[in-house]
Design brief:
The structure is a single chain. With 147 residues, the protein is an alpha+beta fold. The chain has one domain. The chain has a five-stranded antiparallel beta sheet. The protein is globular. The two termini are 27 Å apart. Bound molecules: zinc ion. Zinc ion binds next to helix 2 and helix 3.
């Protein structure tokens, strides 16, 4: 198998590719993430969970939105994963927010698109978190990666 094919397979798997350094992704003028020339989405491997609150859903990011910029600025130690998978199923670890102990590891989880990414890209006219539910609900990764 050649390297390009291996890369595509890894990016398409639910595990994705864990970055050693966030600088491994380039950001296009529009704000998209590029990994070795491929457009990718970005998510965080470890999801911290506080049992006193309902589980907060982590999102995947399709562009360099305000949320991910803040996250990267505040915590450079997150393990960032890049992926081109289109079914929204990604491998994550759930950790206790204080002890950092793993509660569930390698859990394949359905993640959803970050609304701030939709806003930044004005995806299909997305301009407001309160009124644009249908654009969020109808968001399709396969379509996103085609354009
Ligand atoms: Zn985002």
């Amino acid at each position: 198998m050649d390297d390009a094919l291996i890369l595509r397979k890894k990016l398409n798997s639910s595990v994705g590719i864990e970055l050693k350094n966030i600088g491994e992704v380039a950001i296009t003028e529009e704000g998209y993430f590029l990994y070795k020339g491929q457009r990718v989405l970005l998510y965080i491997r470890d999801h911290y969970y506080n049992p006193n609150y309902p589980e907060r859903e982590y999102k995947y990011h399709i562009c360099n939105c305000d949320t991910i910029q803040e996250t990267i600025k505040n915590d450079r130690f997150n393990r960032y994963v890049v992926s081109t998978r289109t079914d929204g199923l990604f491998k994550i670890n759930v950790r206790h927010f204080l002890t950092r102990k793993i509660i569930k590891d390698n859990k394949v989880t359905q993640l959803h698109v970050c609304k701030n990414c939709l806003l930044k890209l004005q995806y299909h006219g997305y301009s407001n978190h309160r009124t644009a539910h249908s654009i969020y609900d109808g968001f399709d990764l396969a379509t996103f990666f085609l354009v």
